[in-house]
Amino acid sequence: MYFRVKKDVELRKLMEAVSVKIGMEMSTLRFLFDGNRIRPTQTPNELDLEDEFVIDVLSEQVGGCSFCDRTLTVS
């Protein structure tokens, strides 16, 4: 998936858009950049993200070992 985001806007908007697009509640998804969890209140500027960056989206897993793995490229 590809999204455009402004550098000074909270990533919550992106997270909500992703959850709608894949049909899962945002609260069940985990968003990671370079292995670190992203909070909805953070902005690309706060995270020092470049013009194009990849965010990993994983579904919350309670027990078991399978998971939903999505990769986003954002510019």
UniProtKB/TrEMBL annotation:
Domain of life (superkingdom): Eukaryota
Signal peptide positions on this chain: none
InterPro entries: Rad60/SUMO-like_dom (IPR022617), Ubiquitin-like_dom (IPR000626), Ubiquitin-like_domsf (IPR029071)
A Pfam match: Rad60-SLD
Domain Ubiquitin-like: 1-64
PANTHER family on file: SMALL UBIQUITIN-RELATED MODIFIER (PTHR10562)
Protein name: Ubiquitin-like domain-containing protein
Natural source organism: Microthlaspi erraticum
